[in-house]
Amino acid sequence: MMNSKALLALAMVTFGALSAANAAAGTFVYCSEGSPRTFNPQMGSDGPTFNASSRTIYNRLVDFEKGGTKVVPSLAESWTTSKNKLEVTFKLRKGVEFQSTPWFKPTRPFNADDVVFTFNRMLKKDHPFNRVNGGVFEYFTSMEMDKLVTEVKKVDDYTVTFVLSRPETPFLANMGMDFASILSAEYGAKVLAAKTPEKIDLEPVGTGPFQLVRYEKDSQIRYEAHPKYFQGKNKIDKLVFAITVDPSVRSQKLKRGECQLVAEPSVMDLAGLKKELSVSVMEREGLNVGYLAINVEKKPFGDRRVREALAKALNRKTYLDAIYQGQAMLAKNPIPPSMWSYNKATKDVEQDVAGAKKLLADAGYPNGFETTLWYMPVSRPYNPNAKKMAEMMQADLAAVGVKVKLVSYEWGTYLDKARKGEHDLLLIGWTGDNGDPDNFLGTLLSCAAVTGGSNYSRWCNKEFDKLVTEARQAPDMKKRTELYTKAQEVFKRELPWVTLAHAKAFRAMDKRVKGYVMSPFGTDSFYGVEL
Amino acid sequence: MVQILFTEWSCNLILKTASRRLFEIGLTLLGVSLVAFFLIRMVPGDPVTLMIGERGASPEAIAELKARLGLDRSLIEQYGLFAAGAVRGDLGVSILSGRPVLGEFLERFAATSELGVLALILATIAGVGLGIVAALTRGRWLDRVSMSLAVTLYSMPIFWWGLMAIVLFSVKLAWLPVSGRIAVEYDVPLKSGWLLIDCWMMEAAWGEKVAAFWSALRHLTLPVIVLATVPLAVIARMTRSSLLEVIGEDYVRTARAKGLSPMRVIGLHALRNALIPVVTVVGLMLGTILTGAILTETIFSWPGLGRWLVSAVQSRDYPVIQGGVLLVAVIVVTTSLIVDLLSFWISPRLRDRGRS
Amino acid sequence: MKRLALATVGFFLLLAIFGPWLAPYSASQTFEGAYRLSPLGFDGADARFILGTDDVGRDQVSRLIEGARLSLFAGLAVTLISMSLGVLIGAIAGWSGGWIESVILRLMDTLMALPSILLAIVVVTILGPSLTNAVLAAAVTSIPGVVRVVRAAIAIEKTKSYALSSRLFGASSLRTVALDLLPNCMAPILVQLTLGFGDGVLNVAALGFLGLGARPPAAEWGTMLADAKGFIESAPFLVVLPGLCILVVILSVNVLGDSLRDRLDPKLRKL
């Protein structure tokens, strides 16, 4: 009896040593926050899906520079826009190899057929892969790319032309977004011939730095380095995503050396993590904005003075500590400061209770008025606790005589009603997709976005709209910067929102990790990372 | 032997009972499919709205997405399609992942069943043991201690108990891993879905296989103990009272009078009959285990059915919920049918009663 | 054991009823700077707060007392709702027999074939997370158990001679069931009531733990647990105390339920 116990103890010690040795041998473990929905980034919209597919397995025609939002060449070496701005032609890189996996051995390198195949799958309803695996191209459809792109033409093996229905410069940045990841046409033909088209998204093949080995849902994803990756083989041989939903468990695993990088550590754990000698905590401002949308279609918010009074009534600085635990910066413009064309010159609205009261009196509301304030039922990165914020706002607004009733709905209902403009004041926010200012100013504040539903202020200003539309079509970066800078001035003058905060994003990692850079988009890439 | 047990008569009776039960099961499953289908559609917020989030989309784009998911059809039509598919064994594809519901279910079921079966085995062995100890020492302090223990375990809020176990054994003492099914360094391909079995089938040196098995076992320890808590208590109490009832009966008294030792009496005569209600209870515990699994899986990040269904409710993944719930119900009713047949077969008395 | 249990339940009931007068502070009052203090007797304690404070500086004693109020009343509400509906449906099924009984039984089978917590989760998602809705959800999931017990008891009683004679003398069905049969089925119903109370507290707490019950800052015990989960390493007592309260209350109620059963069920008493 004693003997077997001793044996067991011995075994424990031996295996403990064994596992420690294994961890050191070129395996990188990433504690990710959730399961990917699919391995086809065309059909996803969330961070875990993009991290597991587009950021590892695939490449796009263009990419964003590491850690930034500038568009740089990737599978396309260069591109030109036609005179009428309706045709964008990409010159493709030669000699890019697809991954060779147990389920597919490529016979040819990447070429124009793959690009045409990829986009036609989403664009053409009669494409053999259009309906495969549900066929819901959520990002592509909701960004109305199907309306923007009319045709994808193969000019020769290494030249592709996109025909657009209207001039649109941010199109280029869109091509760097995750949903524009390039699939293999040859692999598509193979699985179609084998009558198993669904495999195209389950057993993915791409050109990216890592190839999939195995996936166990809600448990782990295993990758190995793509040996023929066109930018050179990765330094890490094996990459494992340990899917760990609970943020405090992720931190515990990092502390115990069970993983080397942690996605979105909980703000509450940051202090503890910073104390650990073997752990370093990184932070950067996120590409996001939390704001209070003022529905200008509702009385009395059509009056600019009332909107300014609201902005002056709120003591926004106190929200930063209480809601974001100090891990955010005060927002004055609708776009975050890390984005190009951010207007440093605009003046922020300071709290001024007397001024707010005077503005309300001028507008004909000396005794204030009653209205409703909607707060989100969920925690989002740009506003982790909307309810608490709403309560603080309620108190601030009461001080200038505005009596606010707090309202909330279940998240789906909330979005639905807000899209239809049923609210008065609405707490909401936005996380950027592609680093282009149009993705904030156009998506959230243009007249077209009123019908689309994402302009929650339902604010349609001719001057602003003209500037943004012009900037969207201008190919020249300098010109665009100028237009967007001006648009922010108009925004600041008209105040359709009370801008609240840009929240920071965090990563915690093992100190031995080198070469990891946080992306402004909140996704994680592992190319170039080493231990 | 079998021929003697199942005379033509009792065979007939079993057939008749079984066919009535099958009919009832069919009705129950029909009810479950209706409840699951309509209940989840009563939840506010449709999957498309949740998918596009803050971005919003034009009404046409939303209509297009809905049409692709088949959500533009009438509810009756949608239910008809679901029911017709279910009868053929096709439960549709998940809205979120685009993968067949049945395949996803089987993957998850493997993880949950590894946890659940081990927990049930632990609960049965420990519970029956505790029950026997208590029954043999009836009224004495060991009985009281055992039964106090049982009622404490029965009252345990397992979500709290799980957290406490993690803090103590994983964080403070660092004896056991925090969460997950196996340490990431072991690359075990899933075949049966049970890691304790699959680790012997991977291509690796023996040392590594043993190490992987050990790692899987260590990851299982805490969740299995936590999940077994409540069933263990129920089984212990049932064993005790059922054993005490049997001991009081004539044939046991006779056996005792014949001078057989108490151990033999318990072992040979009493236990067999006492175990009939225990078998029933073990079968009924399946529901408790499934409910417990939802909480246990949440706490231990276990990739099983519970978390799969809960996240499907949150994202309004209709096919996953209606299909997943139906499959869970199939398991529950099948098990209770098997338990019924089993107790019918174990107990000679029940068979006799059926005949007369 | 029994007396101790009775005393504990009484103690918590007192806390629940007279909580606002007994608690040192309001459950929602925050003390600036007094964050995550330990209970007396540990490092970093403050004499003002016997059981310490939580992450935003609220007094734990006051919150646990408020929690007793919320959790016990929630348990009570679950029991009352599920018992009244369950007894009604069970009595109808047991008395009428025939197809009505079959329909009701199949319906209950259906509800029982769904994992109860999942059913509760769906119900709460439909109604929106709040304490009231968590109570409703927990009640819905415990109805089938009550129905089965009551139906079985009524079905046995109704064949007994007194029930038959009551009918013979021309009493209406309602009268017979309500006045003659139900009182005779009181034993199993009472036992079910006690055990149901414990289950009610537990299920509401479980929903709170999953973030589907009372909304923070409400001091329901399960919600407090869920809130404090993140501090399990830095301030473990925030997790220990609410859970311990749940355990102690349910344990005491179950001990009482057991002794009630032993007393009411003569066959078991003999043992």
Please tell me about this protein's structure.
The complex is a heterotrimer of chains A (531), B (356) and C (271). With 531 residues, chain A is of the alpha+beta class. Chain A has 19 helices and 18 strands. Chain B is mostly helical and 356 residues long. Chain B has a single domain, classed as MetI-like fold (Orthogonal Bundle), CATH 1.10.3720.10. The longest helix of chain B has 42 residues, at 206-247. Chain C is mainly alpha-helical and 271 residues long. Chain C contains 11 helices and no strands. Chain C has helices at residues 2-22, 60-96, 98-113, 116-127, 131-158, 161-168, 173-184, 186-209, 221-228, 237-264, 266-269. The longest helix of chain C is centred in the N-terminal third of the chain and has 37 residues, at 60-96. Chain C is elongated, with a radius of gyration of 22 Å. The relative contact order of chain C is 0.15. At the A-B interface, helix 1, helix 4, strand 8, strand 10 and helix 9 of A face helix 3, helix 4, helix 6 and helix 10 of B.
Would you tell me which CATH topology of the largest domain in chain A applies? Dipeptide-binding Protein, domain 3
Helix count of chain C, per DSSP? 11
Q: What is the percentage of strand-forming residues of chain C?
A: under 5%
How many individual domains of chain A? 3
